[in-house]
């Protein structure tokens, strides 16, 4: 009886591998072109949408009151408006009652940029223990050192991304689906805003008529 061991090595389809290497940059270029087109066409509409939050702090004190602060992305002295395109924010457990706030969000800003918000933070269900997250900004602009945030300094990051970087970092299907959802939400809100604006115009016209 032979103790020889036979090892079968499968043949590798080198032609298919070569095609894969050839097509990969072509696919990437096509995705980048699509992202650029989406960014150019829909970014101006984001001025009618909400703001980009880049930090959050909450703490319930012993008398059951809640401290809460929110911080928003600033651009040229004004809060940045944008569509939320991809939401990968997550909450991880360290134990049953506390853990980490992690994940990323991708926005398309009214200024025509992709903005990636990468957060780091902490959540807790214990009274008196703060919950917070940051995407690269300090939680306390006053310079206070009393909060847990300042123990670590600014954490997380907020950065603009190129079309190529977005294509590499986020699945294209998620980007397209998220942008479609954001645009759909805007479509639902526009009629209500238009009605309120017309009410304001009618009231102003009526009061002006009464003064003349």
Can you offer a commentary on this structure?
There is one protein chain. Strand 8 and strand 9 (114-118) form a beta hairpin. The chain has a domain at 44-191. Strands 2-1-11-10-7-6 form a six-stranded antiparallel sheet, with no helix packed on it. It has a four-stranded antiparallel sheet with strand order 5-8-9-12. Strands 3-4 form a two-stranded antiparallel ribbon. It is built from four helices and twelve strands. The N and C termini lie far apart (115 Å). Helix 1 (14-42) crosses helix 3 (163-169). The chain has 212 residues and is α+β, with helices and mostly antiparallel strands. The model is unreliable at 141-149 (pLDDT under 50).
Measured between the Cα atoms of the first and last residue, the distance is: 115 Å
The total strand number stands at 12
Amount of beta strand: 25-35%
Low-confidence stretches: 141-149
Task: Report the mean per-residue pLDDT as an integer.
Answer: 85
- What is the alpha-carbon Rg in Å? 25 Å
Helix-strand pattern: HEEEEEEEEEEEHEHH
Query: Which structural class fits the helix and strand makeup?
Result: alpha+beta
The general outline is flat
Helicity, as a percent range? 25-40%
Biggest sheet: strands side by side, in what order? 2-1-11-10-7-6
Q: Biggest sheet, open or closed, and with what strands and sense?
A: 6 strands, antiparallel
Number of helices: 4
């Amino acid at each position: 009886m032979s103790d020889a061991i036979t090892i079968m090595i499968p043949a590798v389809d080198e032609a298919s591998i070569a095609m894969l290497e050839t097509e990969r940059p072509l696919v990437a270029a096509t995705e980048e072109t699509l992202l650029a087109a989406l960014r150019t066409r829909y970014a101006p509409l984001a001025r009618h949408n909400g703001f980009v939050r880049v930090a959050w702090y909450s703490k319930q004190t012993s008398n059951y009151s809640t401290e809460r602060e929110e911080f928003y992305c600033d651009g040229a002295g004004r809060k940045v408006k944008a569509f939320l395109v991809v939401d990968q924010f997550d909450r991880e457990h360290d134990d049953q009652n506390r853990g980490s706030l992690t994940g990323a969000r991708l926005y398309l800003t009214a200024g025509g940029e992709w903005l990636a918000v990468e957060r780091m933070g902490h959540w807790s269900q214990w009274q008196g223990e703060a919950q917070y997250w940051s995407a690269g900004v300090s939680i306390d602009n006053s310079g206070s050192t009393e909060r847990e945030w300042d123990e670590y300094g600014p954490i997380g990051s907020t950065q603009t991304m190129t079309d190529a970087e977005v294509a590499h970092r986020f699945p294209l299907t998620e980007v397209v689906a998220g942008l479609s959802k954001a645009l759909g939400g805007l479509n639902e809100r526009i009629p209500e805003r238009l009605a309120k604006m017309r009410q304001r115009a009618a009231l102003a016209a009526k009061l002006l008529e009464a003064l003349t």
